[in-house]
Amino acid sequence: MLTDPIDFEAFLLSIGKLNYAWTNTESLLIHLIAGLSGMDKEIATVVFLTLNTTRARIDMVERLAKLDRTDSAERKHILAITKRIKNQSALRNRYNHCIYAFDSDGGNPRSILMRIADRKDTLKMGQTHDLDKAAAADVETAIGELGQINRDIWMAVRDFNYPG
C-alpha cells in the first residue's frame, strides 16, 4: 500500500544535488586548513587530498582551530561551522552508502544502509528508511543548509583573512 508517495526519479535527482552541495562545501575545508595552519592554498590542497575521508578533514580543521594560537572567537566560529557540517553528514551518508529496495506490493521504495555494526555478540545491518515525502523534504532541507554553510565558510575566509 503506497502512502505519501514520492517521485523516485525526482528523489534521485535531489540526491545528486545533495552530493554536489556536499562535495562543493567539503572542498572549502581547504581554505580553513590553509588559514588555520598558515599554509598557502596549494599546500593545503595537498593536505586535504591526502586526508581521504570527510571525518579526517573535519578533524584536521577542528584540531587546527583548537590550537592555543587560534583566537577564541575564530575558534568558536570555525568549530560552529564544522559542527554544522557534521550534522549534515548522517543524512548524506544514509543516501550515499545504501542500496534501494522496492516493495512488490507497490509501497514506497526504501533505502537500506550498507553498513555492518559489530555489537558484543551480534551484528546489526541493513538499517532501512522509507523514501517518502518526509525523506524528500529532509534532503531538500540539507541541500539548503549545505548552501548556507558554504556561504558561511566563504564569509569566514574573508573575515579571518584566510587564503581564498
Short description:
The N and C termini lie far apart (52 Å). The chain has 6 helices and 5 strands. The protein has helices at 8-27, 29-37, 41-50, 54-65, 72-96, 133-159, and strands spanning 98-101, 110-113, 116-118, 123-125, 128-130.
Your description of this structure?
This protein has helices at 8-27, 29-37, 41-50, 54-65, 72-96, 133-159, and strands at 98-101, 110-113, 116-118, 123-125, 128-130. The protein is mainly α. The strands form 2 sheets. A 3-stranded antiparallel beta sheet has the order 1-2-5. It is elongated.
Silhouette: elongated
Helix content, binned percent? 55-70%
* Rounded average pLDDT: 91
Largest sheet: 3 strands, antiparallel
- Per DSSP, the total helix count is 6
Radius of gyration of CA atoms, rounded to a whole number: 19 Å
Order of helices and strands: HHHHHEEEEEH
